[in-house]
Design the sequence.
């Protein structure tokens, strides 16, 4: 593929829309649309900086899942605790802040933080860390007035039932499936 042009076509509050013009392998000029959470300077900047974290949290052999309304799909789905990294914030601080804001829980131990991975490769350059943590504390609602989130812990059997009947985000579904097999 040969890239010809890269231009911003819309500047939203949270998402920036870009259009990439390129020559395909048959030599035909094509256009491709992407969105980013960041301001991109050019094609070389696409996918260059992580923007958030998804948190796979457990407590005493139970998996933390959020049951939250997501505007993008107009329904309530099971999801992982997740959020965006603030400027000058470490990934560890982001994990602690997002966990507390969405659930009231605190980190007991960070077990592993995976390198950033692409969240939606077909439409976005957004990359996020996946963090595996053990948590403690009591649920408290510290969410903004724009969020509708119910957090809860689920044991292996409960997770298996949810996987058969409830809608999930893809990352939460994958984490829940592996939790149900190996916990």
Sequence:
């Amino acid at each position: 593929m040969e890239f010809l042009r890269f231009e911003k076509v819309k500047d939203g509050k949270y998402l920036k829309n870009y259009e990439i013009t390129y020559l395909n392998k048959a030599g035909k000029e094509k256009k491709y649309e992407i969105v980013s959470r960041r301001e991109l300077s050019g094609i070389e900047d696409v996918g260059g900086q992580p923007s958030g974290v998804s948190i796979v949290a457990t407590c005493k052999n139970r998996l933390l899942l959020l049951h939250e309304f997501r505007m993008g799909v107009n329904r309530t789905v099971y999801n992982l605790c997740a959020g965006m990294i603030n400027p000058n914030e470490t990934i560890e601080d982001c994990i602690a802040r997002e966990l507390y804001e969405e659930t009231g829980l605190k980190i007991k131990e960070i077990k592993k933080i995976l390198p950033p991975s692409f969240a939606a490769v077909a439409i976005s350059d957004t990359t996020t860390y996946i963090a595996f943590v053990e948590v403690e504390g009591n649920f408290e609602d510290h969410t903004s007035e724009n969020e509708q989130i119910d957090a809860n812990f689920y044991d292996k059997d409960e997770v298996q039932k949810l996987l058969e009947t409830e809608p999930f985000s893809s990352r939460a579904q994958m984490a829940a499936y592996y939790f149900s097999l190996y916990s």
Remarks:
- The two ends are 44 Å apart (CA to CA).
- Helices lie at 91-103, 156-165, 170-182.
- Residues 88 and 160 are 39 Å apart (CA to CA).
